[in-house]
Amino acid sequence: MFGFSILALSALFASSEEGGSGGLLSVNPGLAFWTVLTFLILLFILKKFAWKPILAALDEREQKIKDSLQMAEKANEEAKQMIEDNKKQLLLAEDEAKKIVEQSRVYAEKLKTQLLEESKAQSQKLIENASQEIDRKKLEAFAELKNQVADLSLSIAEKILKQSVDKNANAEMIKKYIDEIQKN
User: Fold this and answer.
1) Residue pLDDT, tens place only, 52-87
2) Is residue 28, in this structure, part of any structural domain at all?
3) Radius of gyration over alpha carbons of the chain, in Å?
4) The pTM is what?
5) Which among 63, 46, 60 has a CA at the least distance from the CA of 3?
6) Cβ atoms < 10 Å from Cβ of 36
7) With contact defined as beta carbons under 8 Å apart, do 42 and 4 qualify?
8) What is the DSSP letter of 166?
């Protein structure tokens, strides 16, 4: 740049020393030569030292922009894929939750039915046990009553007959009569 400035100044001084016979629109061949020469030197210097680094920087910048756009597009696609995956997982989780709720409901229904059946069976067993106990107590009471009637009958018979009667023989006889009474 410094060389270009020197050349431009030397061309300006050269044109002013020649006398300045022309106006603004007149063509000065010396000035034109130095201007073209200065432009070519500047173009050569720029091409040699600045053009390649500028183009390399522009290419590098362009590549970075392309890479950034590709990465952004890839990240966008990955985000869309993640959203789709999350939606699928959410639907699967909802389905699984519905299945678990349904299984729990079915299990609770089975448990309720089982408990009802068990309680019915237990109550039926209690009723049967109570009925058997009642029958047993009734038989015991009847047997006790029979014994008391037999004893009472013996006692009455002894008093009536006023004699000593064999208790075992009388007891058999009384049982026989009581059995006949029961049958009738």
Assistant:
1) 888 889 999 999 999 999 999 999 999 999 999 999
2) no
3) 65
4) 0.39
5) 46
6) 10
7) yes
8) -
